[in-house]
Design a protein that fits this description.
Layout lengths: L2 H36 L3 E4 L2 E4 L2 H9 L4 H13 L4 H19 L7 H26 L2
Antiparallel strand pairs: 1-2
Helix pairs in contact: 1-3, 1-4, 1-5, 3-4, 4-5
Length: 137
């Protein structure tokens, strides 16, 4: 097999799994937020109090999740005609980014943060489960 053929196969596999990797990063972040809030582990950051999430911060040191990642995942999902769950993951990730830009502008009660985190965990877990199931076919 030539290097071009191997590269195409690698790019297609990456396009199929990339949205689900991003969803799993969201799941990790939301789970860590819930755990840190349960133990009242907060830090003062940027004129506000935020949960101390060292795992998420460690991941963020190596990879910044943002609009460019989601646009790349969406572009690859559309280009390679991936499954419906890839596109659903992309749509969810766009919604999640919008949520992340809106929430810092308002003050949230802890109950609202718990509810938001649980909803995000349920959605991302469902999408990751569907994605893994689809990829194993």
């Amino acid at each position: 097999m030539s290097i071009v053929h191997k590269s195409r196969i690698g790019l297609i596999r990456f396009a199929k799994v990339f949205p689900f990797i991003l969803c799993s990063l969201v799941t990790i972040s939301m789970c860590e937020t819930i755990v840190r809030m349960m133990f009242n582990d907060f830090v003062y950051y940027d004129n506000g109090i935020t949960p101390n999430t060292p795992i998420s911060w460690m991941i963020a040191m190596h990879y910044e999740f943002g609009i460019y990642s989601v646009l790349a995942a969406t572009y690859l999902s559309i280009s390679f005609e991936t499954c419906v769950w890839n596109k659903a993951s992309d749509l969810y990730l766009l919604t999640f980014l919008k949520q992340q830009t809106f929430f810092p502008t308002i003050e949230l009660e802890p109950t609202m943060i718990y509810i938001t985190c649980i909803i995000n965990i349920v959605i991302t877990s469902f999408l990751c489960r569907k994605g893994v199931k689809q990829l194993l076919k």
